[in-house]
Amino acid sequence: MSKQRVLSGVQPTGNLHLGNYLGAIRNWVEIQQDYDSFFCVVDLHAITVPHNPKTLAEDTYKIAALYLACGIDLQYSTIFVQSHVTAHSELTWLLNCITPLNWLERMIQFKEKAVKQGENVSVGLLDYPVLMAADILLYNADKVPVGEDQKQHLELTRDIAVRVNDKFGTKKTPVLKMPDPMIAKEGARVMSLTDGTSKMSKSDPSEMSRINLLDTPDSISKKIKRCKTDLVKGLTFDDSERPECNNLLTLYLLLSNKTKEEVTAECQDMGWGQFKPLLTETTITALKPIQDKYYEIMDDRGYLQSVLREGRRKAETVANETLSRVKNALGYLPLF
Ligand code: TYM
Fold first, then answer.
1. Helix (H) / strand (E) containing 72
2. Is 113 one of the annotated active-site residues of the chain?
3. Are 210 and 201 in contact (CB under 8 A)?
């Protein structure tokens, strides 16, 4: 039996942080062997908010290099750049004309980001989830490993697929494959270091709120030293009154590869003064090999380009086939 397909992506905006790593990329690495895996750098999504044209290309290289540095293995996975496969834009247009406007207006991330943009909010920001649906549906993805914040976009993707299939397919020959979200039990929602009730995010104006994958040991140490904690002695998971405690213990659990039981036993009698240096050391040790590999890959531009060229070739084959299927179902005059 052939392997199921996985597709996911990260935007080349700003630095990747522990949320992106623990909520998404690390899980990709864990499952990649069991699937036919496609991971893209979603650079078309990156311009849905104002962007810097001088850094976009370099940021795209950086994310691709980080995928490899985190352990994405080309033996199992394909890495490519979204804008290199033009089918993404084309399927987005077709899906736009099938997606009701009010489905998009309901999206939480749109509402949150639109507030920040004020009058400058672009049509692209509203349309962001349709482009994401196109990314997923083009590859007939069975599973989409993402963080918790993407759940609503996955539901929308499924709704769009149902609508296309109902309107243009038959029960026996659906046009689009129905994808399932894959959301990890731990790490699906890494919280800010300065406020345990809000998500760790690239767009938080405070650098102190997040640990980036490329942060120096000094910077990691400073951020953890100053991160928000509480006055309670003894560290425990799952106390709703202690969101920061739960978040920092979860980071320790994931970065040390220990089980919840082990961390509970180890930390239940600790104070913050003992725990913070432990978390600092663990974080620095976990990120060191990723950082070393990242700088090595970034130094070899020819290699990185060859990875993305080959990725594009593989991605295009799958994507163009789906695009033709959709255009046929919609009744377009085929090429001749
Ligand atoms: P982006 O770049 O915002 O986030 C990339 C991935 O990181 C996860 N993530 C988090 N996980 C846990 N805790 C956090 N604090 C945290 N912050 C971010 C996100 O859930 C995501 O998995 N729309 C997507 C990109 C995208 C995509 C796709 C994903 C475009 N097309 C197709 C999957 C399939 C996004 O927001 O990326």
1. none
2. yes
3. yes
Q: At what angle do helices 243-256 and 272-298 cross, to 10 degrees?
A: 50
> 319: closest CA among 83, 82, 5, 85?
85
Phi-psi category of 290—alpha, beta or left, where left has phi over 0 and alpha has psi -120 to 50?
Answer: alpha
pLDDT tens digits along 192-205: 999 999 999 998 99
Per-residue pLDDT tens over the stretch 233-289:
899 998 899 999 999 999 999 999 999 999 999 999 999 999 999 999 999 999 999
Active site (annotated) includes residue 222: no
Residue 301 DSSP symbol: H
* 169: pLDDT strictly greater than 80: yes
Q: Give kind and range of the element (H or E) at residue 151.
A: helix 151-168
In this structure, which residue's CA is closest to atom 6 in ligand 1? 20
Q: Whose CA is nearest to atom 5 of ligand 1?
A: 10
pLDDT digits (tens, 9 = 90+) for 284-313: 999 999 999 999 999 999 999 999 999 999
